[in-house]
Write a structure and sequence with these properties.
By secondary structure, the protein is α/β, with parallel strands linked by helices. The protein has three domains: about 5-50 and about 225-260, Rossmann fold, CATH 3.40.50; about 50-130, NadA-like (Rossmann fold, 3-Layer(aba) Sandwich); about 135-220, 3-Layer(aba) Sandwich (Rossmann fold), CATH 3.40.50.10800. The protein is about 40% helix and about 15% strand. Strands 4-3-5-6 form a four-stranded parallel sheet, sandwiched between helices. α1 (about 5-15) runs parallel beside α2 (about 25-35). The model has no long low-confidence stretch (mean pLDDT about 95).
Length: about 260
């Protein structure tokens, strides 16, 4: 279990011949990119991602034409075809580190405009963004947080950086899935609101029963397509199998491996 970066590292390290990714399609594609000779399964091929669907490879090529020489940092929530047009991938947890590791004054950061704006607020590097949004996180508002604080004055609000910047500003801490978990583990606040996909809060709550989790609940319809029954069916049938066109693999793999090399 883990966020996109942790899952990518696990996929790169495993010696298993079959990898089943209980997640959305871009996660399974990333596992295949790192393991082109292994069988990679996804329980439901319809498990997509609004961010991945917000940008196409031709959009990336157009951005590069408008900004020649500016490197492209691509969120892992993208297709293999988009990764192949990029210089390096990132996750919400290492986006700032990836941007600054390039050692350049400007980068193109795609596709999540809110993640790009939240990273831009933390770095001196100029960020050129795209207009993609996560359909779960974009629905949160500062008013949602104000309402929670009215009901629970002692609450600690933790937001995912895919949320709009005004939501992040209204929160006490912002970070990736792994950073959210780490914050709770270190600080053990008595009451927490996780401003993210609500199943995420359920999973964290299992490990910290002493913490009262307030859940402003927005569900991801794509992640909900993954169930125990279709996981079992995929293991029994070794299908659906995820493939990546051979002409995309080397370039997509290079962008993912550059991300994994940045600590």
């Amino acid at each position: 279990m883990g966020d996109s970066l942790a899952l990518a590292r696990e996929a790169a390290a495993t010696d298993a011949q079959v990898i089943l990714v209980a997640g959305v399609h871009f996660m399974a594609e990333t596992a295949k990119i790192l393991n082109p000779d292994k069988t990679v399964l996804i329980p439901d091929e319809r498990a997509g991602c609004s961010l991945a669907e917000s940008i196409r490879p031709e959009d990336v090529r157009a951005l590069k034409a408008r900004h020649p020489g500016v490197p492209v940092v691509t969120y892992v929530n993208t297709s293999a075809a988009v990764k192949a047009e990029s210089d390096v991938c990132c996750t919400s947890g290492n986006a700032k580190a990836v941007v600054e590791a390039l050692g350049v004054p400007r980068v193109i950061m795609i596709p999540d405009q809110y993640l790009a704006r939240n990273v831009a607020a933390q770095t001196q590097v100029e960020i050129i963004s795209w207009h993609g949004r996560c359909e779960v996180h974009e629905r949160f508002t500062p008013a949602d947080i104000a309402d929670i604080r009215d009901i629970y004055p002692d609450v600690t609000v933790i937001a995912h950086p895919e949320c709009p910047p005004d939501v992040v500003a209204a929160s006490d801490f912002a970070g990736s899935t792994a950073e959210m978990v780490g914050f709770v583990a270190r600080n053990r606040p008595p009451r927490v609101a996780l401003v993210t996909e609500c199943s995420m809060a359920d999973n964290v709550a299992v490990h910290y029963p002493e913490v009262d989790f307030v859940k402003p609940c927005n569900l991801c319809p794509h992640m909900k397509r993954i169930t125990l029954s279709n996981i079992r069916r995929a293991l029994e049938t070794l299908a659906p199998e995820v493939t990546v066109p051979a002409d995309l693999l080397p370039r997509a793999r290079a962008s993912v491996e550059r991300m994994l090399a940045i600590r």
